[in-house]
Design brief:
nine-stranded mixed beta sheet; single chain; Rossmann fold; alpha/beta
């Protein structure tokens, strides 16, 4: 497929672009940085400014058939980037008639009653931003969405195994999160689902296939 990764220069985004390209997809790597060059024939960098209008974003989405939103401000601009930026990408996707939308969110973003669990206390403002972005995707769009909600991201080797629909947050290797995002594109069972996850014991493809 032809896919757009919004947030292609982030920790998850860079690895996701590489993974999708290796899997045979053509990737539009969306970043606010301009004039970036790719060394892969399967990757084309495009300018996606999350502070821009949906109309401006749509012009740079090419002929993408699916969008991954993995961007974030790392707490520096939660309202304009993590919340409104993601909503504007959704609006741009609908204007381009791009139906498939895979969102990287935060564990339990839609369950505020769980925000007092362990590390989540320190992420309240981030969870609020992701809460309303996820709500918009579910209730204010007609996109074929998947919302993937890992806990803390760790730069450790991925096991290729996860647990989903968890009751308590846990660590997630970036490699496992990237693999779960990429696999979601292939797995119809993930459409219309909010998937909490952590590193676990089930092969990623099986975990997502058996939701």
């Amino acid at each position: 497929m032809k896919v757009l990764v919004v947030g292609a220069n982030g920790r998850v985004g860079e690895n996701l672009v590489d993974k999708l390209a290796k899997d045979g997809h053509f990737v539009y790597a969306g970043t606010r940085r301009e004039n970036m060059k790719s060394h892969s024939s399967n990757v084309q960098y495009v300018h996606i400014d999350l502070l821009a209008s949906p109309e401006a974003m749509a012009k740079n989405m090419g002929d993408a058939e699916a969008i991954f939103f993995v961007a974030g401000s790392r707490g520096k601009n939660l309202l304009q980037v993590d919340l409104n930026g993601s909503v504007n990408v959704m609006r741009a996707a609908e204007s381009k008639k791009i139906k498939r939308f895979i969102m990287l969110s935060s564990v339990f973003s839609l369950e505020p009653e769980k925000w007092d669990q362990a590390f989540l206390k320190d992420l309240t403002n981030y969870n609020i931003a992701k809460h309303f972005a996820d709500q918009w995707l579910i209730h204010n769009t007609k996109l074929d969405y998947t919302i993937l909600q890992p806990g803390v991201l760790k730069e450790i080797p991925g096991s290729g195994e996860i647990d989903v629909n968890i009751d308590y947050p846990g660590e997630n290797s970036i490699e496992n999160v990237v693999s779960a995002l990429a696999q979601s594109l292939q797995e119809p069972a993930t459409i219309g689902k909010v998937i909490t996850m952590k590193d676990g014991k089930t092969p990623i493809a099986d975990a997502l296939r058996n939701l």
